[in-house]
Amino acid sequence: MSEAGPRRRDVDALTMEEAGAELEALAGEIARHDALYHGRDTPEIGDADYDALRRRHDAIEARFPDLVRADSPAREVGAKPASGFSQVRHSVPMLSLGNAFDDGDVGGFIERVRRFLGLADDDEVAVVAEPKIDGLAVSIRYENGRYVRAATRGDGQVGEDITANVATLDEVPETLAGDDVPEVIDVRGEIYLRRDDFLALNETRRAAGEALFANPRNAAAGSLRQLDVSIAASRPLRIFLYAWGEASSLPSESHHGALEAFGRWGLPVNPEIRLCAGLEELLERYRAIGEMRAGLPYDIDGVVYKIDRLDWQDRLGFVSRAPRWAIAHKFPAEKARTVLRDIRVQVGRTGSLTPVAMLEPVTVGGVVVQNATLHNEEEIARKDVRVGDTVVVQRAGDVIPQILGVVPGKRPANAEPYVFPEACPACGSRAVREMNPKTGRPDVARRCTGGLVCPAQAMERLRHFVGRLAFDIEGLGDKQIAFFWERDLIRGPVDIFDLEEKVGPSLAELEGWGEVSARNLYAAIDGRRVIPLDRFVNALGIRHVGETTARLLARHFGGFESFRDTLAGAEVGRGEAWDSLVNVDGVGAAVAEALVGFFAEAHNREVVEGLAERLTIEAVAEAGGDSPVSGKTVVFTGSLEAMTRQEAKARAEALGAKVAGSVSARTDIVVAGPGAGSKLKKAAELGIAVMTEEEWLARIGAKAAGA
Ligand code: IVH
């Protein structure tokens, strides 16, 4: 065993090619040791050597994110560190944040808040500005003031239990001090490493011949991902708390007041947090924090703004995964120059062709970038990007790197304008820009017309199907999909669920597979034979139907049968099924048409039926579960007085009601304010319950705003 020894070169010194080759070798090696460890055979190496392999692997991946392999051990089922933690469901989801990139976006945020709450022009909106710490989000539960559990964010709903690791942080108190500590509170914040501690840690590792961490965030994450608690304990991890989830009571009616209480209880709160009186002060604070950024002892990547009044936060609620009452104002993206080697065209699951720039590898903001999106052919033409050009690349946070433009004067004499292919690079079918009937112009995206014969589209659909927001099947990544595709074993979603029956234990004999990985894959597939309807709908990959729309549809239809039966009988533009579809709030005609179009194809219906035979598709619990209006369809008409229409709608939806735009036989309640006209009449005709806004508020147990 030589792998983990000091002879290895610094990750920082590796070229892209060396890194790629080493990752491949490490993936194989780690898989072999995993198999020895989990199987009946005796492990060949001890835990420390194994951990060193993993760390080396993770450090290379962190520095070269473009090289992360489909069979990366970080994704494998049964890999030691990542899978050893048990799961924790967050009783209140851990949200992420929307982004603002310039002053205009911040103004827009404040404006939206004002409009949503229906504030008068002279109403002051107090907002807290906080440094956005570049670390790892964590939720820590205290019961009766005592530390009981800590969990990672995970997918926002379910995280990993890292109670033991977080308990090693000196800054996390075992008990909270004070007489206003709630009986139960999940405090939330960011675990991070200071830059000097990170440098010292890497220095020690360099001296010991160990792999270096790419940045403080990675080092913090790597430390918390270890099952061996002594590793986290040996790292000087720190924390700032800035939010909370479930809380039996709160010490204040304002966000800044709550954070002050956190401080009194003994929880670390960032000292640069300020309460600002409005947009001007926020932007001033943003610039001030930007100026102190380089001098701060820890990494930050922006400023988070939060509406201070908690009653307003409650009313604002959230959309999808982010609160309406907070936003992250990011610092400008990092840029670098490099040479464009080639332009490759990728085929998406709906057949759209996307040009991708293949770049001379360049480090931008700490990671090596070698691909960047060029969006579409118009974009290439507009920027006149040519192979051989020196281009400016930008990378911000986790977003895909972009090409900002060409550096003038650096173009080689022989560089030719780029000609976009008119045939699909995967199947050779014609690729066309369809006419968009609404704009009267051709679509920006060129699409492959190959449909079902195009292997690239089919594989992309499969990738989407098994992806994180859909079936989330671990161990079935891009590489494995291509593997099964080539052997004609998986050509569509249904094949995934027949794989074990078809291939059985002989999978272990196929190249690149072993007993353990085969068993793990079958187990991962089996684990997804029961699936919630929203994930199922999202997995189908219907155009315009993403995670959010899938959830709306799942809630609307309740169960799979109702979803399928309605759509199977639907026609575009007429009939009850169509009306009920376009009546789902958030589902416009484009989505409805895509859904009906999808079900009109016999092949798609076969896939849906095939899956239904093999799976248990679970109804999705209504939001607001047991609320008095859960599952009811409500129509608001006339003017509302206690809140804006948008807020009324958001609140009804949060309680599990469906808000529709027009009155039909499916409407349960019409809330009519002054000035209500034809909808009120229709409700009377159909014998639907009509209530005033006040009665509605009483029904949902809410007070009018300001009351
Ligand atoms: S508030 C509901 N405040 O940024 C609001 N997040 O991009 C939840 N983060 O997932 C987040 N500093 O991990 C908040 N002062 C701060 C933060 C912060 C860093 C992270 C957090 C979040 C991510 C969103």
Number of strands: 28
Strand order of the largest sheet: 2-13-10-3-9
Task: Note the total helix count.
Answer: 25
**What is the molecular shape?**
globular
Could you name the ranges where pLDDT drops below 50 across 5 or more consecutive residues? 1-7, 76-82
Bound molecules: 2-(butylsulfanyl)adenosine
Query: What is the helix fraction of residues, given as a range?
Result: 25-40%
Task: Provide the structure class.
Answer: alpha+beta
Average pLDDT metric: 88
Description:
The chain is an alpha+beta fold. The protein has 25 helices and 28 strands. Helix 17 (533-539) packs across helix 18. 2-(butylsulfanyl)adenosine (IVH) binds next to strand 3, strand 8 and strand 13. The site of 2-(butylsulfanyl)adenosine (IVH) has 14 residues, from strand 3, strand 8 and strand 13.
Concise description?
The chain has 707 residues and is α+β, with helices and mostly antiparallel strands. Helices cover 37% and strands 20% of the residues. Mean pLDDT is 88; it is low at 1-7 and 76-82.
Keyword list:
binds 2-(butylsulfanyl)adenosine; 707 residues; alpha+beta; 5-stranded mixed sheet; 5-stranded antiparallel sheet
Write the SSE topology.
Elements: H1 16-38, H2 47-63, H3 80-83, E1 87-89, E2 99-100, H4 103-117, E3 127-133, E4 136-143, E5 146-152, E6 158-160, H5 163-167, E7 184-192, H6 195-207, H7 216-224, H8 229-234, E8 238-247, H9 255-265, E9 274-276, H10 279-292, E10 300-307, H11 310-316, E11 318-319, E12 322-323, E13 326-330, E14 334-347, E15 353-364, E16 367-373, H12 377-383, E17 390-395, E18 402-406, E19 431-432, E20 435-436, E21 441-442, E22 447-448, H13 455-466, H14 478-486, H15 493-503, H16 515-526, E23 530-532, H17 533-539, H18 547-557, H19 560-568, H20 575-582, H21 589-600, H22 602-614, E24 616-618, E25 633-637, H23 645-654, E26 658-660, E27 669-672, H24 678-686, E28 689-691, H25 693-699
Parallel strand pairs: 2-13, 23-24, 25-26, 25-27, 27-28
Antiparallel strand pairs: 1-6, 3-9, 3-10, 4-5, 4-7, 7-8, 10-13, 11-12, 14-15, 14-17, 15-16, 17-18, 19-22, 20-21
Helix pairs in contact: 1-2, 17-18
2-(butylsulfanyl)adenosine binds at residues 95-97, 130, 132-133, 137, 190, 242-243, 304, 323, 326, 328.
